[in-house]
């Protein structure tokens, strides 16, 4: 397979199915302050010979991270590593190899449902000021709440530009009714269900390719995993896997 063909098959870089308007997923964000999201990880692959960022994720223990299923289900685990403890992709931080990755058994690329997975590191993650786990939720998320999105996704979708510095944006959680109405033109992924959560920041801001698998957080609790969005920053809701719906699944697999 040619390098360019491989690149276009990598999760989080380019949408990989017929629904070309749906991105694997921050445009309109700002540089995150150092240590703002100490749970943030960069999921990287060496399939092109270099360590290339493909998705985000979150530290949930010293052995496990959570990300999107579409980030890990088609890439061999031996070709994946994570980087923690840095806001800069050019500053490696601490790199860890992965022992295994588990995608949700009911994950569907057609409906983008159950888009969640976890990976175990080969050696325990060493915590520090800039490396900390994020809490799993103990209650469902309410609509109308401000949530923090972080990631290294494209800041300019047309130019396919990914930032070196971690980006942040504040989104507002939406009701399912609001979300389904806003996304009504994209029937192949509807309806958005109870195990998903939508968030919105207005036209010009939102998740983009490379943000996939990353965290949506409220008060240091992981409420969502970036799943997908329609073209970046075009005024549509971003869709996340609702972590609260999968807490038992996560703990059962750890």
Summarize this structure briefly.
The protein is mainly beta and 254 residues long.
Give a description of the structure.
- Belongs to the peptidase S1 family.
- Residues 26-254 form the Peptidase S1 domain.
- This is trypsin.
- It is found in: Secreted.
- The chain starts with a helix and ends with a helix.
- The chain is globular.
- The protein is mainly beta.
- It contains four helices and 13 strands.
- The protein folds into two domains: 40-132, Trypsin-like serine proteases (Thrombin, subunit H, Beta Barrel), CATH 2.40.10; 134-244, Thrombin, subunit H, CATH 2.40.10.
- Strand 11 and strand 12 (221-229) form a beta hairpin.
- The chain has a six-stranded antiparallel β-barrel with strand order 8-9-10-13-12-11.
Q: How much of the residues is beta strand, in percent?
A: 25-35%
The total count of strands amounts to 13
Shape: globular
CATH homologous superfamily assignment of the largest domain = Trypsin-like serine proteases
Q: Within the largest sheet, what's the order of strands?
A: 8-9-10-13-12-11
In the CATH scheme, the class of the largest domain would be: Mainly Beta
Mean pLDDT: 86
- Helix content range: under 10%
- The helix count comes to 4
Supply the CATH architecture of the largest domain: Beta Barrel
Number of domains: 2
Profile the largest sheet: 6 strands, antiparallel, barrel
Intertermini distance: 34 Å
Structural class: mainly beta
Give the uncertain stretches in residue-range form: 1-9, 13-25
The helix/strand series, from N terminus to C terminus, equals HEEEEHEEEEEHEEEEH
CATH topology of the largest domain: Thrombin, subunit H
Tell me the radius of gyration: 16 Å
Pfam families: Trypsin
Protein name: trypsin
Main location: secreted
Subcellular location: Secreted
